[in-house]
Amino acid sequence: MIIAADESLQVGIDAVIPLSPRHAVALGWAMTPRGEGTELSIAAGRAGDCPIEHSSFHARPAIQPADPRHAVVNGFILVFAMPEDPADAMPEDAAELVFTLQAGDRVVRADLRDPRIPRDPARLLAETDWQVAFGLLKDTAASPLLAPLAAQADRAYGLFGDWLARLPLLRGRQEKVAPLAEAEALSAPSGEVVVVLRATHPVPPDATLESALIGYYAGPDGGMPALLPVPLAEWHAAPLPTIMAGYGRIDARWLDGLQGLEVVLQARLRGEEAFCLRIQPRPAAVPPLLDALCRGNRLAAMPLDAGSGPAIALLRAVIARREAAFAPGLEALAAKAATSPASTPASARIILMLGTDDPSAARLFHVVAPEIERRCDRLLLMGDAADAVAQVFARRGRIPAVTGPAAVQGLRDAAGEDGILVVDVARYAAALAAGAGQDDALGQPLRRADLARLLGLHAAAGCGAGLPDSLARLLRLMRAEPGELPFPPAPYAMATTEVADLVNDHLARLWTAGDPAARARMEAPPHG
Amino acid sequence: MADAPRICIVSHSHPDFSKGGGEMAAHRQFTALRHAGRRPILVAASDVGTRYAALRPIEPVMRQAEDEYIYTFAGMADDRLAWEDPHQRRVLVDFLASLPVDVFHLHHYWRVGTDLIVDLMAARPDARFAITMHEMLAICLHYGQMVRTQSRELCRAESPMRCLTCFPDQTLERFAIRKATLLSTLSRFHAVIHPSAFIRDRYLAWGLTRPHAAVIENYLGDEALALPRPISPVPADAASFGFFGSPTLFKGLDVLLRALPLALRANPAITLTVFGAEREEVVKLFPGLDPVITDAGRALAFAGRYDPADAVALMGSVGWAIMPSIWWENSPVVIQEARRAGTPLIVADIGGMAEKVAEGIDGMHFKRASPVDLARAMVEAATPGTRDRYAASVRDVITRDEFLAALDDAYAAGGAA
């Protein structure tokens, strides 16, 4: 529905969508005189003004003023509250609901109850300018007031389902995605994403890349997963010579139960040429996540960006952001672990066998099974040969032994408890081979504070695909044995040695955050 | 004998199928116990049965003779140190656990399995467990020889990095797991019986310190002990030498064949008889020695394979028995047979050979793997009077009563495992 005062003052109302008994969102656009101040307001007649509690504006390229020199067009998203009179609680019940756009002494009014306003917002989002849908998705992630939109229509993605269905879903890394040579997205357990759009042409300095993230959360009792727009704690995008790269991190409060992410992108890489992309990032540890920022591609006609000055500058900027975001928390976790009382082996009723990789470990555990069973109620096994070892305990039938994702979940569950005995199988075997008794070979249990630190380190600085690698690194950090670096470099071949040095130094700082002794050992000058 | 413990001997093989030193020792112990009026039970692995099991169904455990049983080990992993088929293992454990015995005496853990051992111990907590170590398989992946794989250099101690140079395809983790598994298993025995102080010391250095360790020489058997000594009323020719055994790469026959022409140059009367192999077998193993064998002419003879029951008598037919092994050996039956026959020995100066042949009493030593030094010893041995002097002092072997008493002491001495 369009209401026009003249050629430079017009308003278009695309939809008015109830959000709750007291809130609604109005979608539309406003054409206003260029350079002149304007005001927007919504009122419910004698019931009073409707406060606008959230507003955002976006481009509407499909709507052109008659003379662009004299007028501009902006899309808007306005969340407003109804007056407190219960009789006027819902927009459709309100006796009067008027949208007012004022520019100087000119005014244009639109009745938000007008039956010409479309009543199928999902269809509207799918068929109108995609900037409207993208803007609303971003706002839905940012504002809890809009959250019901993602749950409406009783289908995945709520109101956004029809629109998203029109965007092909890319996964991980895909070549030849017009107009790109390649699109790639990675995500880390910390809720970070890196998006790299590799172009076939130079990317100008004023290119932009915006993102909206959708989180996948397990549904109750194995039902349909919940797909919810999640707020970004930060987003940083930068044009590189032939690449548009972005780094984002979701709000930490949305990490709990997060199983996956989907990134919806709005990119403008050249002039007014803009497009939308939808991509499911591949899960990655932190090293490949950061390395991707400095990777060129095989198909781009232009010289590769890998290791270029701008790419390194972007990497440095992202590293600085990461350290600002994660180091304080990791320092606090390390401090808490340092002051937590030691636990005794007897207090641990769960044993986690880490690095159960060699099938011959099953022989060892066949022999020592009674000793293990005496010391725990539950066994978690991680590694390539975990199933073979679990079979040993399954045949004996004394204690449950779980492997794979169940073992990882068991470790996460144990983070709230005190005392889990984490045993590196290779070190355990080496200790037994050296003549140690079971108690000495099994070592000390991890405490609740250690487990919290582990999960924190894994999320922010994990170097391997799974939790076992982080656990092995934490145990090494805690051993503080001479001859062992507190943080061995990540075994990942990065774009250049400069990239590798930057990433490894950064990760070392995170791993040793709050641990001055380890930090000192890491930063000791090399001999010679 | 009513109070004597009843014993089950578990062996990695049976003399009906192969005649290695370990299975011969196990069977001779079985026979000695039986002749002593006790009622032992022998349960031995059977490679014949195992091969058969690969083609047709066969019971995992079968009766071989009165109180003698054989089992197949087709269900074991390739290295024969653990079972891949838990059901076959369980059948064997159930069978062994049901036997009316007080002591399980294992000869070897190879073809028995660490998993079977601990399961049997769990099934029979009332029994005592002893094991005789016939070589060093737990310590060394190279057939338990402690000889480097890239050369024939001797190895004196196990260490993971050193082992990695011999087995570059292995991992440090696997070495650790292997040792931890074997050490944890062997440490549970009440008694470990070593046929030589040499092998006892190797296992001690490796870390096997918990069980009672006894050094008890293998028993040569009632038949050999019944023979008169010296075996031959007429002294053998001092210049005649004999090699006894299968000519494997580690037995040092090549060293002896290289020493022969050197010795012949000093004393053309010297002769050498190889008992245990034909010329073709030796040439196949050491092709480069074919001209040496040809040149030796009538000074060298190949007597082919022999029955172990005839070994002592054959020992008496030569003036000297030579044992030139390039590996350590443990407690070679050849040395026992020669000593039983009253035939002095020339042996390499290492390991179980040096221990079992007291220099100046039972015979002479030569520098291991040195043909020159072996030739020196042979020439000296062939001088008039030398052989008679050594033949007079060479010591006899352990008697049955000594052997069984030592075993009973070992069974009783071991504390709780």
TrEMBL record, chain A:
Q: What is the name of this protein?
A: Uncharacterized protein
Automatic annotation (TrEMBL), chain B:
* UniProt keyword list: Transferase
The yes or no answer to whether the keyword Transferase is present is yes
Keyword Transferase set for record: yes
One Gene Ontology molecular-function label: glycosyltransferase activity
Pfam families listed in its UniProt record: Glyco_trans_1_4
The source's domain of life comes to: Bacteria
Q: What is this protein called?
A: Glycosyltransferase involved in cell wall bisynthesis
Native source organism of the sequence? Falsiroseomonas stagni DSM 19981
Recall the taxonomic lineage recorded for the source organism.
Answer: Bacteria, Pseudomonadati, Pseudomonadota, Alphaproteobacteria, Acetobacterales
